[in-house]
Specification:
- The chain is built from three helices and three strands.
- The chain is α+β, with helices and mostly antiparallel strands.
Length: about 120
């Protein structure tokens, strides 16, 4: 079983241009009792969507909002991305390698009817 949540979104300054910040979403992944976290930008979710939308069932992708630094907009985006990735997991019994790579999983049994939320151990 794979479960995901996105509990936080954090602004990070760009290394080469400190005045330009971007948002990083913390994606928590639970697979067969093992939990890890991956950091992803909105553009990485968007790239994943473009790669998998023709080969598997995907929900609507959350739109890009500007300005993305507003707390209310960031929270809406975080929720939208969380619903999106949970929907991908729910609707696809066999996940494409792109999804496994995105979540940094080598191999994991997927039960599409299992809950996609992280439960406290």
């Amino acid at each position: 079983m794979i479960a995901v949540s996105i509990p936080a979104a954090e602004a990070q300054a760009a290394a080469r241009s400190p005045d330009r910040a971007h948002t990083v979403f913390r994606v928590e992944v639970l697979c067969n009792g093992r939990r890890h976290t991956v950091a992803k930008r909105y553009s990485e979710f968007q790239a994943l969507h473009k790669r998998i939308k023709k080969t598997c069932k995907v929900p609507d992708f959350p739109p890009r909002h500007v300005p993305n630094w507003m707390p209310k907009v960031l929270e809406q985006r975080r929720q939208g991305l969380e619903l999106y990735i949970r929907g991908v997991l729910y609707h696809n019994k066999e996940l494409p390698q792109d999804v496994l790579d995105f979540l940094k999983l080598r191999c994991c049994q997927q039960d599409p009817k299992a809950s996609s939320s992280l439960a406290a151990p």
